[in-house]
């Protein structure tokens, strides 16, 4: 949903040049940049359209690898405001999570990764969201709530962000 609000972005590309990419759904550079923010280089500035708060829903399904890799990925993403795939190569599975507005509002069998993948797969299988008024975990998909709480989910009043624990990480998207 972040990409939906971006009107233009300045990117430092691999040659060190600053490139301004303006929203244009027919421009390949825009489509590449808005599909994976950061794909074309380091984003140094963005201009956003501001949206009012609105209700969204999220759902997640576990799919066999073949259904995603040999299927209609565009058809699985296009109907939704945003959608994500998480690939678990050892398990030969994908988690497919998608979000939309409510109308009223790698390697195979990488043995060094097996244990981590089993743990992370189990963690991502269930929603990482809580009910807003009681903070009780929501255990089943689909989830419903306000866009900020659902899309930013995972940081609640009794938690701190990773950097406050001294953790550093990189995200590959």
Label this structure with key terms.
single chain; 173 residues; alpha+beta; four-stranded antiparallel β-sheet; three-stranded antiparallel β-sheet; 24% helix; 31% strand; flavin adenine dinucleotide binding
Report on this structure:
This protein has 173 residues and is α+β, with helices and mostly antiparallel strands. The chain folds into two domains: 2-48, no CATH class; 55-151. Helices cover 24% and strands 31% of the residues. It is built from six helices and nine strands; from the N terminus they run αββαββααββαβββα. It has a four-stranded antiparallel β-sheet with strand order 5-6-4-9. The longest helix is centred in the C-terminal third of the chain and has 15 residues, at 111-125. It is globular. The two termini are 15 Å apart. Residues 105-109 have low confidence and may be disordered.
DSSP summary, beta strand count: 9
Residue-averaged pLDDT, rounded?
78
Question: What is the approximate shape?
Answer: globular
Tell me the major beta sheet: 4 strands, antiparallel
- The structure class reads alpha+beta
Side-by-side strand order of the widest sheet: 5-6-4-9
Unreliable spans:
105-109
Specify the helix fraction band. Answer: 10-25%
Spatial gap, N to C terminus: 15 Å
Query: Helix and strand string, N-terminal first?
Result: HEEHEEHHEEHEEEH
Number of helices: 6
> Radius of gyration from the CA trace?
18 Å
Strand content: 25-35%
Number of individual domains: 2
State the gist of this model.
The protein is 24% helix and 31% strand.
